[in-house]
Specification:
Elements lengths: L6 H5 L5 E5 L8 E5 L3 H26 L16 H9 E2 L20 H14 L6 H5 L5
Antiparallel strand pairs: 1-2, 2-3
Helix pairs in contact: 3-4
InterPro entries: TAC_Gp13-like_sf
């Protein structure tokens, strides 16, 4: 027979975590990822959306003749996979290991490792499309 959860049980339920094997970092090396909360997922997608719009504005400005440019600043790159990693990896107590400011440090890491971790995080968070595709408006 199924258990009907109480309000308290629902509101205090822990978010799922998964351990991801990273053999490149050691024989028994794993990292732990925690599923994003509803708010974290919304913030994650909004960060990507803001970056994409800023990048488009810069690219549009660059297409103009130099005298007509508005000197739009090129935004700092936001790699959606690395952003998901820094916002999802947690320690044994469930506390985030990284902050957004740590993203540039992932630039020199093995693509295979980053991709493996991101792929697991995508599955954990049930991203059926690439995060960038979720935030881009369809152009007609």
């Amino acid at each position: 027979m199924a258990t009907l959860l109480s309000r308290k049980a629902i509101l205090t339920a822990a978010r799922p975590c998964i351990d991801i094997t990273v053999p490149e970092w050691g024989d028994d090396a794993v990292v732990r990822a925690r599923q994003m909360s509803t708010t974290e997922r919304a913030d994650y997608l909004e960060t990507i959306r803001v970056y994409q719009h800023a990048l488009e504005a810069w690219e549009d400005d660059q297409k103009l003749p130099e005298k007509k440019r508005k000197n739009v600043t090129k935004p700092d790159e936001v790699h959606s996979g690395v952003l998901a990693i820094v916002r999802s990896l947690v320690d044994e107590e469930g506390k985030r290991l990284f902050q957004d400011e740590d993203m540039p440090q992932f630039a020199d890491m093995s693509f295979t490792v980053v991709h493996r971790i991101f792929d697991a995080i995508q599955k954990l968070n049930q991203f059926r499309e690439a995060p960038v595709e979720l935030v881009l408006e369809k152009k007609g």
